[in-house]
Structure formats: C-alpha cells, structure tokens
Design brief:
Elements: E1 13-18, E2 22-29, E3 43-49, H1 51-61, E4 66-69, E5 71-73, H2 76-86, E6 96-98, E7 105-111, E8 117-122, H3 136-139, E9 142-148, H4 152-165, E10 169-173, H5 180-184, E11 189-192, H6 196-201, H7 206-213, E12 220-224, E13 230-234, E14 237-241, H8 254-268, H9 272-286, H10 299-306
Parallel strand pairs: 1-4, 1-9, 2-7, 5-6, 9-10, 10-11, 11-12
Antiparallel strand pairs: 2-3, 7-8, 12-13, 13-14
C-alpha cells in the first residue's frame, strides 16, 4: 500500500514544521540516582532539541527543503536554540523572538546502562502563540506540514489552514488534553508515543486503543514502541513493523527522528511498510549517540543499516 499523496507544486518548501524547540542539557549517569544522593556525571552535553525543530534538522540533513516556525526566548538559550536550527540549513525566517521570555529548556538524565532517559523540562507560557500572531501564508508555504500538540490552539489553527489548502499534515503527540480530539480530526497522519493511545482512550491494549482512536481521527494512526518498533492502523487493519536491537547510548530524540523518517518516506511515496521500517531504522541509529541531533545519520548510513544481510 502507498499513500499516493498529491503535493502542491508551487510551494517554496518541501516541509514546514510548527512546534517546539528546546535547549537540552544532557547528563549521562551510571544509573538513575536515588533520593538524597550525589553522583558524578559521566558525560555532559548542551544541544539543540525539541520535537518539531529536531525533525526539521533531520530532514534538512537528508536534502529536504525545510522551514521551522516557532518561538524562542530573548535570552541566551533562545539565541542558542535558533542558531542550532539555522546552521543546519533550515529556514528560520518566520521564527518569533519573545524578548522577555525564557527559551524552553530541559535537563535530561540518561542512564548509561540502558540508554533510557528522564526529562525535566520548563516552558515559558509566553512562548505560546497569541491570536493573530501566526500567518497562514507561512504555515502553508510547504508541500507538507508537521506539528506537535503542545501549543494546541496554534496547532489546530495551523492544521485547519493546511486542510483548506489541501496540504497533508503529520502530528507528533505525546500528551492528551481536552482539545487534542479536535486536533486529530484535522490531521492526516497521527503518530504518537507508546503511551498516548492509552492516555487518550483509557484503553490499555494498544490495538484496541488505536481502533477506538479511529472514531475521532479519520487519518492514518501509528504509535511508536521504542525498540519494539511501531504499531499502525491502516485501512482498519493492524500493521506491526519490528524495531531494531542496538546498544542504546541515549534514546533522546528518537521519536523526533522517527517522524522525520516517516515524512521523508511520504515525500518519496514509498510503500507504507518501507516508510515505517526506514523511520524505525533512522530512530534506532540515532540512539547510538548522545542527544537528539548528534545521532542523526546520513541517508547512506540508514539505507546501509537496513540492507538485508
């Protein structure tokens, strides 16, 4: 099965992403610390992050013409975040700076023994878009639109504009809130974290949760399951695509890179199973390095990794 999307040809960008950017402070520790303890960090790194911003960076590295739309704070962290996106060749001409706001940032504790991470984050409310700040012509300047659900009002507005213009939409969801159901009704490709279907539906069984979600989300549904791969609902049939066993250094950003891989496959009009396998491979390889962006591999490296032995 292929999606056979019809992309508008008169767009200056292949993909526009509207959503989070962040500055990540990554701390690698021997094991997750206990209460009232002290522990020496094995490694520390400061990197650019954020769901949509990292996906745009990955796509740009793979030769896709990408534009990022979001807000940064007027502090040093905001300058760092914006610079980290710009230097990757991503268009940032529509990024807004909030002079009085602190940029979003996160402290990420990475367990060396497993590569699993715990994220402690902070986001200034002034980084949310206010009514009238987003511009339809900028949101709709790409052949495809990628969103996350954190600034829910801005995401709904953007998805509505894209639907009006016939632009396919992808969303990266990890949390459920009252307006999330309104957002997913407007999105063509809903790709979530492993926990989201249960959070949204209250159903613990992944397959049943996706089927229940389909009542509100008419498009493609998929949940990423880490090293287990992905589970998707395609034409009312469950499709499972296995992940890859690797020695994980850090899982930070794996979902962001998965979304980038999925979008790349959409643009190539690959068969759905190939898209999901490519996205799985790109996400798995990312986990070999610390941080969401350092581990983004080249297309050549990903294709070589996916070649049958």
């Amino acid at each position: 099965m292929r999606f056979n999307l019809s992309f508008l040809k008169d767009k200056p960008f292949d993909v526009v992403g509207m959503g989070l950017n962040s500055v990540d402070f990554l701390c690698v520790v021997p094991e997750f610390p206990t209460v009232n303890s002290k522990m020496e960090m094995l490694l520390f790194s400061k990197q650019g992050g954020g769901q949509v911003a990292t996906a745009m960076v990955a796509l740009s590295r793979w030769g896709v013409k990408a534009k990022y739309i979001g807000k940064v704070g007027g502090d040093e962290l905001g300058q760092f975040s914006l610079r980290s996106i710009r230097q990757e060749g991503v268009d940032v001409s529509s990024v807004t700076t909030e002079p009085e706001a602190t940029n979003q940032f996160a402290t990420i504790i990475v367990d060396r023994s497993t590569g699993d991470r715990t994220i402690l984050w902070n986001r200034d409310d002034r980084l949310m878009y206010r009514e009238g700040e987003l511009r339809k012509e900028e949101i709709c300047s790409g052949k495809l639109l990628h969103l996350d659900g954190h600034d829910i009002h801005a995401a709904i507005r953007s998805a509505s504009w894209a639907k009006e213009e016939g632009i396919p939409t992808v969303v990266d969801l990890d949390k459920a809130e009252p307006l999330t159901s309104e957002l997913i009704k407007k999105v063509d490709f809903v790709i979530t974290s492993a926990r989201f279907p249960t959070l949204f539906t209250g159903i613990s069984d992944q397959e049943k949760a996706l089927v229940e979600m389909q009542r509100q989300a008419p498009g493609f549904l998929c949940a990423t399951l880490g090293r287990e791969g992905v589970i998707a609902l395609v034409d009312r049939e469950i499709l499972c695509v296995k992940g890859f066993e690797i020695d994980a250094v850090d899982t930070t950003g794996a979902g962001d890179v998965f979304h980038a891989g999925f979008i790349y496959g959409l643009l190539q009009n690959w068969e759905v199973r190939k898209i999901l396998r490519f996205a799985n491979g790109a996400a798995a390889l990312k986990c070999g390095e610390l941080g969401g962006r350092k581990g983004i591999r080249t297309l050549e490296e990903i294709h070589k990794f996916l070649m049958p032995i």
